[in-house]
Write a structure and sequence with these properties.
single chain; four-stranded antiparallel β-sheet; Creatine Amidinohydrolase; 15 strands; 258 residues; 4 helices
Length: 258
């Protein structure tokens, strides 16, 4: 969970810079998501996002991070997260998760969403809707005095009603000048000592929800995470500021509309 004294509290000046980074990350994510269509390769999407980063005078927070070789993470269907842009062609009926993290003026903005390509199945649509809603169930706890365990547990408690599974091997995280800061933010209720949330904490909350089992496998590229049963997965993420009044989403965007 991370010790209390290791969770960084952002100052008012820090938060202003994170708002800028968050809005840039959101703009790039939304535009890159709109660029996704059947017939394009995931590499084309990644390079388009790279152009947008250049336009915004920011850099990818992912490229080179622990050796990651792409600007964004693009994951299709049974790929959960960390997919690498390649010559794989996106097809009608796919669901494509895109994760955009950028660094702007020293601060990180991190966000993700899943895109429906053409005519997707009702089952995939239902998974996407539930995954996005689980994100907002969790975000609702981002307020001073609330429990981090409650914030984390809200995701699993919501999606399990539909028979879906959370990926337990991967978690959200604190975020600021570094891409991954304390605390860890799992999508299930963690065991052990709880943390009370304080104004100025910034969390990257990111439900990764599988249609089938929660078990995952890492492919031979050492990055791409796929579902063990090959069923589809969805991923939605926001960077969220904890305040006394309630959550402030630093990566604002419209919600899904089916």
């Amino acid at each position: 969970m991370g010790k209390k004294n290791r969770i960084k509290i952002k100052s008012a000046q820090d938060i202003e810079k994170m708002r800028v980074a968050g809005k840039v990350a959101s703009d790039i994510l939304q535009r890159a998501a709109s660029f996704i269509e059947a017939g394009k390769t995931t590499k084309e999407i990644d390079l388009y996002a790279a152009e947008l980063m250049k336009e915004h005078n920011c850099r990818s927070a992912f490229l080179g991070y622990r050796g990651f070789p792409a600007y964004t993470c693009i994951s299709i269907n049974e790929e959960v997260v960390h997919g690498i842009g390649s010559e794989r062609v996106i097809k009608d009926g796919d669901i494509v998760s895109i994760d955009v993290g950028i660094q702007k003026n020293g601060w990180i903005g991190d966000n993700a969403l899943t895109v429906a390509v053409g005519n997707i199945s009702q089952e995939a649509k239902n998974l996407m809707i539930a995954t996005e809603q689980s994100l907002f169930e969790s975000i609702s706890y981002a307020k001073t005095g609330e429990s981090l365990a409650d914030l984390c547990g809200a995701v699993e408690e919501y999606v399990e009603k539909f028979g879906y599974s959370v990926v337990r091997d991967l978690v959200g995280h604190g975020v600021g000048k570094d891409l991954h800061e304390d605390p860890q933010v799992p999508n299930y209720r963690p065991q052990g000592k709880d943390v009370k949330l304080k104004a100025g904490m910034v969390l990257a909350i990111e439900p990764m929800i599988n249609q089938g089992v929660g078990d995952v496998i890492c492919l031979d590229d050492d990055w791409t995470i796929v579902t063990k049963d090959s069923k589809v997965s969805a991923h939605f993420e926001h960077t969220v500021l904890v305040t006394d009044e309630g959550p402030e989403i630093l990566t604002p965007r419209p919600r899904l509309s089916f």
